[in-house]
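ok trying again, last paste got cut off:
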Amino acid sequence: MAHKKAGGSTRNGRDSESKRLGVKAYGGQVI
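nice, full thing came through this time. structure:
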């Protein structure tokens, strides 16, 4: 369930949240 939430979060909040946790936490897993 973390992947589904991460993908949606990075896509919707692609401002600062995705750059902070998205790229650091989900960046390595999703990408």
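cool. Residues 14 and 22 are 8 Å apart (CA to CA). The chain has two helices and no strands.
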